[in-house]
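Sample 3 of the quickstart, ligand FE2/S2 (inorganic) cluster:
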Amino acid sequence: MASHEGAIGVNPNQYEEPMMKIPTMHIPGVSDTTDDTRTPFPLDQWYVAALGKELTDKPLARTLLCNKVVMFRDGEGKAFALEDRCCHRALPLSSGTVEACGIRCGYHGMLYNGQGQCLEVPGQDMVPPRAKVKKYHVEEKDSIIWIWFGRDEAAAPSCAPPDYTVHSSGDYIWDGSAFHYEAPYQLIHDNLLDLSHLGYVHLKTIGGDAKTHMNAEMKVKAEAKSVRVVRHMLNSAPPPTYTAAYPFKGLIDRWQEIEFYPSHLRIWTGAVDAGSEDINNPSRGGFHMRGFHGVTPETESTAHYIWTIATNPESNEEEVLKKVVDQTAMTFDEDKVVIEDQYANMLSFGEAPLVSIHVDAGANRARRIIDTLRTVAN
Ligand code: FES
Ligand SMILES: [Fe+2]
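Result:
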């Protein structure tokens, strides 16, 4: 895919607003979708519905892009998603039970298969032909459950869900979780594309010296549907999570490589002992943390943040993984507080103008991509 903006180096001392228009920092909760050429969210996309491990023997209810969905596995372990509403008297199917061939409503026991077709009405021989509920296209890949939302609800997905081989390659061990946000999904994008905040928000874990973060060399490259941000912090002090997980000798050369896509971000961070190897080398050693961040709108003003963190311990795998996961969860708790406070304040103050600074270069490009994808004519 051709890059339409090219790579830019962002010099903190010379930053000006980028040439292109920055999409207005719209305050969700105040809908801007009255114009029917716009959809509230990018469609014709795979979104992250859940981590595979979240689907056990119970139904999982989740509202995704304003759709109330129930997910479950059949007896063979295959994942399905249906509209979370029984067609008899509208009880959420998620309050029912999972069986080998589908999900049974918890009110009068109608049984539905993974296609949403009713298979059985207890006490009645005939199943009414119209007894069915909407089904969603779902695929489980690399331990992630993806769900397709298309402009044409009846159409099959036009592509396969993304790969995420960090989960399946065997080079890393990983775990993760799902957070719920009382804030719109694009504020999470902004946060993840701007890791300069580490030195202010995450001092107890992956932070470090705030000045080092704010002055880090940063390169931003935008494509039609992705943004890549690379930041390097050479000769910096290792933060607590790093020293807890890896035997660094002293100062470190640290990298942050962030890839944004409309449905998720991939963030590869890590470090080597300062001067020991080139941190541009794709197969560099040292300590690695690879984050997967599924950012799925729940509504226009709330979001699901479904994440995993993978690492490569030199030894004590389980112990290091636990440390990395615990500290990552603590870090994301800190982000959640900031982002929810930020959104509450935006609601209080309304659409008062906001000023961009150098750290926003990647986030502004991501906003522009989302803005474009929300236009129906696109
Ligand atoms: S409401 Fe589901 S079977 Fe009656
Ligand atoms: Fe953060």
